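Customer escalation, tier 2.

The customer says the design service returned an amino acid string that "doesn't look like it belongs to this structure." They asked us to rerun it and document both sides in this ticket. The original structure tokens are below, unchanged.
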């Protein structure tokens, strides 16, 4: 089996009809996690996921104590510790390949996606093997990012995206500044109360278990050139080129050009594995080994997401 085909293991109709999905997930937790460790991602089909509360209990059976999200870039609904709705991101806009919270000082090693309501079209949560992506990127590009890391800048304001209060789980600027000081984030406040941050993170990570090198970041997804052109133009017109809600740079502060961002996304596409959602699907993903994305969709779409096993990249 090729590396790409092997990146998403499928386990069809695992539990029998009428089986309690949460009990089944808890009972098979070690088997599930072992398959994820081997393949990078596992798709379980045939579970009875009756609403987000039930889905959340199934997720907790696999991840155990969940990880609270901080520094999110889009709003979510919370269904208990470490369990959330998928990000409220426009349905017609893709969420390009990325590793969850790879810009943060602490990221989840394990992610679980539970499909309560599949979309009528599109909306796939695709995966791509980060080891294969790293191997296929130009050597000089990888070397530059390994040498300097990558920079993420953010502009939290009342008009676009998530506010700093929700992103940091904070009620006042002092709490934000303490968090940022503890996590290596530079802070600057605007006169109108908006917040600007800057952080430098590694772009390549050694898998904590195997030691294999993985392309682990959100360089392309959070870059201005991945935005729809009309969205980018509108935001620059409203807030200026330095006021985008997020943007990424080489670690030395140099800007990325559109061709480089397109190249990174093209390599991701080469290694992308897609499986349309069905009601009751459960996908468990190693967040280091696998990047994931969310494709545009039509209709209702309810995916419950769990974050677990926090680690420091």
């Amino acid at each position: 089996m090729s590396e790409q085909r092997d990146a998403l293991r499928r386990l069809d109709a695992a539990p029998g009809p009428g089986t309690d999905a949460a009990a089944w997930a808890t009972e098979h937790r070690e088997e599930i996690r072992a398959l994820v460790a081997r393949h990078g991602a596992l798709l379980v089909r045939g579970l009875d996921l009756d609403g987000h509360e039930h889905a959340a209990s199934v997720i907790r059976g696999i991840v155990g104590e969940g990880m609270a999200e901080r520094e999110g870039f889009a709003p979510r609904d919370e269904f208990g510790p470490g369990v959330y709705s998928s990000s409220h991101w426009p349905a017609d806009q893709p969420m390009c390949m990325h590793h969850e919270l790879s810009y943060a000082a602490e990221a989840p090693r394990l992610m679980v996606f539970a499909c309560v309501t599949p979309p009528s079209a599109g909306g796939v949560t695709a995966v791509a093997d980060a080891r294969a992506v790293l191997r296929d990127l130009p050597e000089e590009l990888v070397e530059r990012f390994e040498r300097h890391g990558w920079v993420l800048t953010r502009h939290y304001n009342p008009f676009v995206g998530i506010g700093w209060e929700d992103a940091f789980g904070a009620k006042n600027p002092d709490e934000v500044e303490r968090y940022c000081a503890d996590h290596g984030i530079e802070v600057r406040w605007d006169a109108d109360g908006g917040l600007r941050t800057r952080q430098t993170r590694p772009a390549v990570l050694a898998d904590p278990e195997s030691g294999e090198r993985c392309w682990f970041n959100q360089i392309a997804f959070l870059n201005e050139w991945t935005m729809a052109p009309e969205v980018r133009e509108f935001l620059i017109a409203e807030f200026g080129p330095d006021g985008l809600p997020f943007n990424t740079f080489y670690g030395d502060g140099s800007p990325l050009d559109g061709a480089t961002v397109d190249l990174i996304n093209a390599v991701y596409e080469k290694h992308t594995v897609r499986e349309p959602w069905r009601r009751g699907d459960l996908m468990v993903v190693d967040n280091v080994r696998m990047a994931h994305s969310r494709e545009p969709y039509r209709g209702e779409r309810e995916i419950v997401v769990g974050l677990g096993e926090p680690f420091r990249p």
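Tier 2 assessment: The sequence is consistent with the input. The first strand starts at residue 9 and ends at 11. The domain at 131-267 is CATH 3.60.130.10 (Double-stranded beta-helix). Sent an explanation to the customer and offered a walkthrough call.
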